[in-house]
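Complex 377.
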Amino acid sequence: MNKIFWCKSCLNMSTRPRITFDSRGWCNACQWAEKKKNFKFNPRIKEFKKLIKKIRKLYKSPFDCIVPVSGGKDGSYVSYILKKKFGLNPLTITSRPPLTMDVGEKNLNNFVRSGFDHIHITPNEETMRKVNKYGFIKMGFPYYGWLISIFTSIIKTATQFKIPLIVYGEDGEIEYGGSKENLNTLIFGSDYIEKIYFESGYKKVMNAAKLTKQEMFWFELPKRKDNFELYLTHWSKYENWDPYDHYLVAKNNCGLQESKVQNSGTFTNFAQTDQDLYALHTYLCYLKFGFGRATQDAGIEIRRKAMTRDQGLNLVKAFDGMYPESYIKKYLEYYKMSKSEFNKVLDKWANKKLFTKNTKSGIWEPKFTIGEDFFYK
Ligand SMILES: [Zn+2]
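Predicted structure with zinc ion bound:
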């Protein structure tokens, strides 16, 4: 018998890719949350400043680094802190997501107008649609093309402008649960991107999408022969990363507004409000692993002690895994798929050990109870 269990401190599931637990049954995100309260970030900040100095001397670019932004709280926060606290001049860049939400576009405009240099990259939307569709089918990842471009199009721009430092927001593996391989490493490379972020599916999806050389431009990983040393880092490595604090800073300084309606499948309205495919992504995550967006959001609140595990449990039970009914029409139009083709993809990715299909409604229903050890053959 195999056992599926939930973190004893937050509500992370043992099915979460790459996650590890200690003898108390705490997941690696909770272990890190405990450790980082007294963690000395200062040596890391020193490293960061040293790197900036080195880059300034070598490249003499008017920009010290690139910060990928979407208009959301985290990228806005990182840009703001680097500019105001560290006196840096970041070039902010957005790779335009598919199916943008109005509130996301408004927030991006507000952010840019709060005083940042900004480039908006729009990879050809038909190409993007193609890669997203194959990502949905082959990886169960509905915006795989955009995920790729968040790295590749920004690295491409960094190379063109000779700005070798890119500062991403959080290392989700460490903050939310996953691989610990980069726990003590500040700089990451394209191998980490391929393995962790692209879930080793980059070649599979790109082979299926069959892009022409021109279409490939924004989706290409950096080649070794580019011979340009690139430094990719996560700002969560340099301070006690707190998404709610970022929300407040971005709201007060960068014009961030929350969504008027609650996000699909969770209880929050201030995170991930830039594009409509996110609701499908978290629903697929639920079908594959048994947890969705509410688990992720509750975990953040529990770890920052704004919520007890029991309160989180009630919210997760109420919201997690909600079928994104109101978006389905939009998704079918976007992927140019029929409802039955679309459902086939969901059926393919649903974890049959964890779910059974309700033959009447066609919706996958959990066999497990959230928070209670579950055994399967
Ligand atoms: Zn945990």
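The two ends are 5 Å apart (CA to CA).
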